Amino acid sequence: MKFNLAIAGIFKDENAYIQEWIEFHRIVGVDHFFLYDNDGGSEARNLLEPYERAGIVSRQNWLHLDGTRYDRPKRVGRDKNHMAFGHAAKEHRNECRWLLKIDIDEFLLPHKGNQISEILEGYDRDRIKGIRIPRIDFGHSGHRARPPGLVTQSYLQRETQPSNYKELANTNFLSNNNWANSAHHWSYRWSRGAQRVDWSEVRDMWICHYYTKSLEESMERSSHGPQRPKTPEQWEERNATRNEVHDETMLDFGEEIRRRIAYVTKEKRPVE
Fold first, then answer.
1. What does residue 207 show for φ and ψ, rounded to 5 degrees?
2. Domains, the chain, with CATH or none
3. Which of 13, 22, 167, 262 has the fewest CB within 10 Å, making it most exposed?
4. Among 159, 214, 164, 152, CA closest to 22
5. Which has the higher per-residue pLDDT, 1 or 125?
């Protein structure tokens, strides 16, 4: 295996956020990123190019797919995101031990230490095929305009309890996901005795989800999907239960993230 832990993600219009996302995950122990480029812009390519040269990012052009496909004969409806994750499973499952599917607004946070790899050592890869990691939503934290700082340093208000999950796959059991149509869970080969760990049982890590961000940012991205808030009223409604707890955990990572971004911007190569 080339990598212990890898992330599969698809991106569009994420230039303001993608370096922070990559550098944070490198800090906590992610080895590689399989990124599906639904952006196509030169700025995104330039931001990712140092990471590609260093072997940290594998970028796949994903401009040829949009909308929903209905695959015969099962007529399973899948959008470009589902198909990107399916491609990652089929093409890259033999390159890593663990593969997580998340978006660029989702950050995998360990609850003890700062290395996900140390946490994963506690899971039996002979028995566990997937770990459903709880996901907790962060709200606007009082920002109507985009704040000047990093996402993880600016949005510190969240909901009380996790409300969803994203699944980390043990690639020993991962299928090629040809018919997969979920942004949350993977499909697996049949195996007697292999179990998923439910998100209610996971206590040592969770995913911080910065979905709505500020009103300004949310309205800029309102066309990116049917579930995105389209009006200020919808944005307010979406945030209604996502600003209940003040959480400063992510502040511990700010200085190192900024240092790494400054380094790759100046040197055109990432911190080793």
1. -110, 125
2. 3-267 (3.90.550)
3. 262
4. 152
5. 125
